[in-house]
Amino acid sequence: MPVKLDGQHLTIEDVVRVARHGEKVELAPEARERIARCRSVLEKKIVAHEIMYGVNTGIGEFSEVVLSDEQVKQFQRYLIYNHAAGIGEPAPIEHVRAAMISRANVHARGYSGCRPEITDTFVELLNKGVTPVVCEKGSVGACGDLSPMSQLALAMMGEGESFYQGRRMPSAKAMEQAGIPVPGLQARDGLAAINGSNLITGIGCLILFDAERWIKQAEIAAGMTLEALLANMKPYQSLLHELRGFKGAMTCAANLRRVMDGSDLVTGKLKVKVQDAYSMRSTPQVIGALRDAMAYARVQFEIELNAVADNPIFIAEENRVLTGANFQGSPISLPLDMVGAGLTMVSVLSERRLNRLLNPALSVGLPAFLTKGAGMFSGLMLSQYTADTMIVEQRILSTPSCTQSIPAAADQEDFVSMGMNAALKTKQILTNAYGVLAIELIAAAQALDFREFAPGKGTQAAKAAVRKVVAHLEEDRPLFPDHNAMMAAVERCEVLTAVESEVGALASSW
Known about the structure:
Layout: E1 3-5, H1 12-21, E2 25-27, H2 29-47, H3 69-83, E3 87-90, H4 93-108, H5 116-128, E4 130-132, E5 135-137, H6 146-153, E6 161-164, E7 167-170, H7 171-178, H8 189-194, H9 198-228, H10 238-244, H11 247-260, H12 264-267, H13 278-281, H14 283-305, E8 313-315, E9 320-322, H15 330-358, H16 381-397, H17 419-449, H18 457-467, H19 480-491, H20 494-503
Parallel strand pairs: 1-2
Antiparallel strand pairs: 3-5, 4-6, 6-7, 8-9
């Protein structure tokens, strides 16, 4: 079923469906009417020579320069040219598609002032699989993602390059082959195509969607390790977390109970310690803190997906023009920084549990480094090294971007969000998190092989999923194939799928 763009109801899941899975998009009829009505009001103002930023004036430091009628006709083209100033490799296709649906939904609110043909072209590009080539770096997150969005807007003039049917080619050729008319850019059209933090928003939506699935697998891995370490089950009781009141912790504890349901540890058949280490019994509080941060981030991103994020903003009903800074990326940059730091925090927790699995002084009777041939064999000793180096990279990347503003444009743009840095680094933090979690899953499965009690149903399903990818380590072998294969399986959510098939859907925090 196509995703309908009405400016009010776009969700993170909709973005994923369109950006990643090729779901079709359609512009709601009422949205088209709003766009056309706003454009009509704007054109009357242009004829009346009413001064409007970015329409008949320059931009940034040149905002006081008033353009002639002839310059107004040419300005949007030069605006796109001089802002298409990025650098680096092309952004992933799904990131650019996410930016396009985000921008089209801004237009659907009916305050951007562009011609309907511009929004139609965004929709056609999405539906026919033409994706402009956009350099990954260059945005400072205010006045939006101007540099990458300008590369995208080049396609509106039949310029630049695009990916189409697996090939990179001139956009004019791609659009011709796809049957998409080139709309050209008239007054206001160019700025309306670029003036928002839409690439940050698109990337952030994909990250949040993937992080929710990662965090459920982090809970599964934690459950496996807790069982392997003969954990005391009292810290995961519902009442304990209800008394404190944090929803994320309650959700995590519920998921841990579901994974470990049916375990001999739960029934009390096994002797356990009175109290476990923090890295074990604090799992709901730590993972829950990330869950709460992600719930906040989701709210912020879905507000932004349906926001009026332009400058200026044209209020057709009141014949007014508002100017301000709704393009500013800070409302989504700060949550992305928080999510990145939270992913790092939970990865550190995973590594600390891994340490307890490998260290014979802490592992409650497990063989050193999970090998029976200690001395001749080193088991998973070096797996911890790999997890550690990924965590150090995560820690470096967890430095906030939202505090890193550097003034630009002769100090007219003297505070910027640096939200694109937040998006790119959080994506890398998540990639590393897949690897860290993969190593804990491998170690937990290995450890459970040495235990003789019956683990929970979810734990058994998780271990079976790991064993489909990585065999038991009977004697030393190169570990990098195991690490990479398991990391890919985590990214594909194979462990989550296996567990939920056995015990039902794990809870989310929203």
